[in-house]
Amino acid sequence: MSIELAGLCFTSASGLPFSHDHWLVALSYAVAAFASYSALDMAERMHRTTGITRIMWQGCAAAALGGGIWAMHFIAMLALTIDTPITYDPVITLLSLVTSVAFVAIGFRIIQSRRSPAAIAAAGSIVGLGVAAMHYLGMAAMVLPARIAYQPGLWSLSVAIAVAAATAGLWLSTRVHHRLRDRVLAAVVMAVAVGGMHYTGMAALVVQVDPMLMPADGALGDGALGDGVSSGPLAAAVAIGTFGLLLLALVSTAADRRISAAAAHEAAALRIANMELQAARLQLEATQREIIRRLCSAGEFRDNETGQHVARMAQIAHLLALSAGCAPGFAEQLLEAAPLHDIGKIGIPDHVLLKPGRLDAPEWKTMRQHAVIGQRLLGGSGLPLLDLAAEIAGTHHEKWDGTGYPAGLRGTDIPLSGRIVAIADVFDALLSARPYKEPWPLEAVVAHMREQAGRHFDPELVEVFLARLDDMLEIRGRFVDEGAAPQLLSQSDAAE
């Protein structure tokens, strides 16, 4: 009994006996194993890349696995030994190759977007049905004087094996990435599954000779692929071509893997270098702060009458810089460098520096040299904090109208750091007691600051400073000289 279904004939009858060439069977298995290994190797690159590169490797993996499965099937079909001449229709044979590659590509696309068990099962079913379609298209490409039918039970089993083999192959492509041994073992398993599908399908084959299909002259037709060529050389040609292409693919994946490893190594080296650079920068900043701290200590040995003046002045300068819209990084550097504004006083003779009372003209001329001394002492190191400290030391006594010292700079020719520290220094100094003066009342200090805006001080900075006067006074309350009471008048109390 025979049944026609979807272009396939299913029968329970028997047909011509056939066998397989053992060497070609072995060759077909070797092609399947090599193709599986190549596909797994490229799938590893596919899963590790993104964008257009991932699409490229996805296509290569599909071509390797789909093309390799097709080559295995074609060689296995050439291994068929039966008592009837066989040749192959080139168009249908090519269509079977396209079918195999296309369905494998669809499967890889599905698992690339999602790797869940459900997605792998769906992709495996699609690819398995595609592989089965490829196999039976290849069988339909056979041109022989006989009718081809299949035993339904073995036919169904071959399709089931195709789906199971495809599912296992796709699952392995998402799991086997690293060790060579794992990829080799997975390739062997996949080759067994692929071979099992083919030879189960061949076992389902029933070839029934029909004398009516034999041409009168005994010829097989002009369009048959392999006309006049024995199966051995043709199988060898297909195998050599397949192995060559797959070997080229393996070389490409090895080269890409080596390039990726080199890029990863370079990126890691760059990260380490950046970490080392960051550590060096932090160490440099710590070194600069330590130098500044020790220089401040040296200054205190010479002139300890100012108490916490340098700490208050630095905090006030920091707040003023932020309030004026300066970058936080610059404000932080100002906080670190400002305490050295008067470090040049270590070069001033004691009889001038420590004189109780006002200085006369010659003494005042000598005292003014501390700005130049401080700038020379700190400048030229190439260290950012010390260079900024040198700038502050040399310019914080310059005045907006050009009457300051040591260079007589005017307006914005005075560096911003010097203009900010000038306001912070004078404000705190006027509110503090000195051997030569009593502290000024806050009202008088505020009036002086306003009066000197545009003369001594940058007028815009004075406006910003007075807008934050309460905050400036709060800083003074946190850094009080020993034995002194803080002045905490509010801004409204100090207004004129």
From TrEMBL:
Q: Which terms are listed as keywords in the entry?
A: Membrane, Plasmid, Transmembrane, Transmembrane helix
Instruction: Please list every transmembrane segment annotated in the UniProt record, as residue ranges.
Output: 23-43, 55-79, 91-111, 118-142, 154-172, 184-209, 229-251
**By its UniProt entry, which Pfam families does this protein fall under?**
HD_5, MHYT
Annotated GO MF terms: phosphoric diester hydrolase activity
Q: Which CDD domains match?
A: HDc
* Domain of life assignment: Bacteria
**Is the Transmembrane helix keyword given for this protein?**
yes
Report what the protein is called. HD domain-containing protein
